[in-house]
Structures are given as structure tokens and as C-alpha cells.
Predict the structure.
Amino acid sequence: MRADIIMLPGDGIGPEIVAEARKVLERTAVRFGHEFHFQELLIGGCSIDAYGEPLTEETIERCCRADAVLMGAIGGRVGQSLWYELPPERRPEAGLLRLRKSLRLFCNLRPAKLYSELRNACPLRTEIAERGFDVMMVRELTGGIYFGTHSTEELDGELVATDTLCYRESEIRRIARKAFEIAEKREGRLCSVDKANVLASSRLWRRLLTEEAARYPSVRLSHALVDSTSMQLVRDPAQFDVIVTENMFGDILSDEMAEITGSLGMLPSASLREDSFGLYEPSGGSAPDIAGQNVANPLAAILSAAMLLRYSLNLTTEAECIEEAVEEALRRGFRTRDIAERDSAGGQRVLSTSEMGDRIAEQI
């Protein structure tokens, strides 16, 4: 296969972890006889520095012509970066939101799996960690409060800020069907998360999910409130198989899921549109406090590359090969510092970002 892949390393640790994902993809291409062509472009703060805006039209156009996009991270330290003195529509995060909207990426997949080798890094109770878990978050990505209208005005002598949350029926049905299809291929359990006791948008969400369930008799649908779900995820995450929810709730809950796996550095993600095109990125942030130190965990970026192979290029065997390489590296005791036990006397070896990438590539 020949494939064109756009790389958007971004800011902070983004360039470091994307470099390791590319290293693994290049090794995979050699191993399986594929031809991957890579092109690096700018997004986020580095694009602001170079072009005065977080995402250029040219970058969008080039992404549209590619087979897939692999991204790193965007943004810097809020309060210490000149980027955040700009108007909201010109800040780093605005570039990512615009890219998702321009590429029509409505479905975000965030798998949270607790590897048996990392159970000691899991902050949950020992008996919960011993059980393990494998949860898929399906997050609606182009609607909701992030894409509503935003305003700040003075009213009765004080400032008032307003953000609107809006969902169309078609947007909800589209993400619901994707979630049901994913649940069909897993354990057949789908939990829809909302705030139907308060929000009109959530009441519509719950109604439409219930209607769509009739089309998928093999999937057992349940409903839960977002506050209850956040509690249950730390109480017993294994009770969930697939979770589907709206944009902001999914943003928050998926970060919680990342933490209970032991590290944000272990959580990949895929943002898909209705065809095979997707944007892939680790779920963690730009981590400006460790940027440039070669200590960041590249595994989420590498696992995101595996998702790219699976969902955009339909290379399932190659994707599994990368995932197995990650598991083998963990079994051999290779760790970056975020997932290393304090007492590494048990045969663990703490590696740099680039060293971990080397170990994964060697396993391909």
C-alpha cells in the first residue's frame, strides 16, 4: 500500500512523541512492504509564531488531500504564554477545533485499557486494578458547547459571559449509530451518558439514543448521568464496555479514563468522519513543563499510529503488530518515567522518549 500521511507535531512534547510514532510507522512499512509518505506541517502555537494564526488554509487543504493525519499536541502553559493573550479565535486550541470542523471529524474514539504490566501504576484500589478494564469512549466531536455561540457583555453594571450548547437531531443520530456499530463488535454493551435531569439537549440525546437502539437488537443500551458516570469510572471501570456521550462530557470523562490507566501517556485517540479518513492523536496535552527533555511517554502517540493503520488504511495486522510490540516492551520492563514504579528493582528500566520508540520499533 502507498499512503500519504500528514504529521502535525504541534507544540510542547508534540514533536518528540510524533517523531517516535513516525519511527514505528516507518519500521512497520519496511516490515510489511508498504510505502508511507510523510509531510510535516504546523498547527497551534508554532503556527501562530510562523504565520500569525493557529491553522492556515494551506494546512487544511493538504490535510484534506492526505489519507490520514497524525498529530502531537498544541498549546503552552496558560498564563505564561503570549499565545493566550490573543483573542480566543486565534489561540492554539482554536486551530484544532477548526481542523476537526473543516475535516468533518464527528466521531472521537478513545480506548482506555489497563495493561496488566501497569496495574501497579493504576491509582484505583488493588482489587479493581487486578480485574483490569478495557473501555472505549465514543465522543461526539463537532457539536455541543464547544461549537456554540460565545459572548461576553456588560449587563446591569457587571460582565456576563454566555456559552450556548446546541445539538441537532442528525448529529445525535450519527454518533449514536457509530457507537452502536462499535459496541456490536465488542461485548455488546453501550452506556449513553448525559445530564437529562437538567439539560434539554441531554433529554433529546437520551430520547434519540433509545430510538436508535431498536436498530441494534444485539446491543444492550443503558443510560447514566455524567456525574454518576465519573464516580463509577473510579469505582469500577470494568462495568463499562462502550460509552457514548456529547462533546464536553466526553472531553472530561476521557481524561479521567486516561488517569486510571496510570498515565495520560497511555491513551491514544482517533477522530473519524463518515469515510475512512481520520485524525489521530494522543489524548494528553502538550506538557510544556517537560518539553524538550526527552522524557515524555510516546506510547499514546505510537498507539494512535496503530489506530491510523486500523481505521484509515484498513491494515489490521499491522496495527495489531504495533500494539503487540507495545505490550512486549512493557512485559520486558521498559518504562518511561511516568509509568515507572518508584522502586524499579523489579527489573524495570526507565527509558527516554527516543529510547522507548527504539524499543517498540525493534519489536516490529
In short: Residues 6 and 63 are 6 Å apart (CA to CA). The chain is about 40% helix and 20% strand. The chain has two domains: 1-106+278-364, 123-260. The mean pLDDT is 94.
